[in-house]
Amino acid sequence: IDENLGANSKQKFDFVIKETVEKIDVSAVLGKEKDKDSLEREIIELEEVLFNKTKESKKKIEELVIENAELKSQVEILNKSDDSAKQESNQDEIVGNIEEYDRIVQEKEMLASELGQVKELNDHLLEKERSLNQELAKHRAQSLGLERMCEDFKIQIEELSKKQKKEE
Fold first, then answer.
1. Burial 72-91 (b: 16+ CB within 10 A, else e)
2. Which DSSP string do the residues of the chain spell out, in sequence order?
3. Distance between CA atoms of 77 and 87, rounded to whole angstroms?
4. Residue 24: phi, psi to the nearest 5?
5. Please, which residues have CB within 8 angstroms of residue 20's CB and are 6 or more apart in sequence?
6. Reported pTM
7. In angstroms, how far is the first alpha carbon of the chain from the final one?
8. Rounded to 5 degrees, what angle do the CA atoms 146, 148, 151 make?
9. Is pLDDT larger for residue 27 or for residue 77?
10. Quick count: other Cβ atoms within 10 Å of Cβ 1?
11. Is the CB of residue 16 less than 8 Å from the CB of residue 53?
């Protein structure tokens, strides 16, 4: 941990020592109000305070290093989970696109089959129409022939009836 303190931490430590030294009553030392023993006790107390503050600082640094490592690991986990969620989302989208493509291909094949059936039916109906038109033309011709024959019979019957009336 001393290595982790680095130059910046050493500056902070020196600042704490300087601050503590400033707290010593300089006038009392110069005025010889305190004797050597009390000064030594005060120095020992100050060293203990500094030691305790240093110890607390090191402990806080350790806690912060551990917390930082935990946070980094959480960020990595979140990034991985985001990446895996994105991958899952992309895979779901791809699967959905493949299913949609398969459905469209199937529908296209079905429509192509239906189109083939409709074309066959259309060809059959066109052939039937031609056949029926020929039949119709044939029947019209027969009908005209029969009408002429009927007309001729009618005329013949009328002529026969006129002859019979004249003979009577």
1. eeeeeeeeeeeeeeeeeeee
2. -HHHHHHHHHHHHHHHHHHHHHHS-HHHHHTT-S-HHHHHHHHHHHHHHHHHHHHHHHHHHHHHHHHHHHHHHHHHHHHHHHHHHHHHHHHHHHHHHHHHHHHHHHHHHHHHHHHHHHHHHHHHHHHHHHHHHHHHHHHHHHHHHHHHHHHHHHHHHHHHHHHHHHH-
3. 15
4. -65, 135
5. 46, 49, 50
6. 0.38
7. 157
8. 110
9. 77
10. 11
11. yes
Residue 125 neighbours by CB distance under 10 Å: 10
Show the tokens assigned to 105. Answer: 């291909």
Token digits of residue 53: 């503050």
Token pair 């130059």 is found at 7
**Residues 6+ positions from 34 with CB-CB distance below 8 Å:** 28, 42
Quickly list DSSP for 114-138.
HHHHHHHHHHHHHHHHHHHHHHHHH
Digit-coded pLDDT (tens) for 115-159? 999 999 999 999 999 999 999 999 999 999 999 999 999 999 999
From the list 10, 15, 16, 4, the residue with the least C-alpha distance to 63 is 4
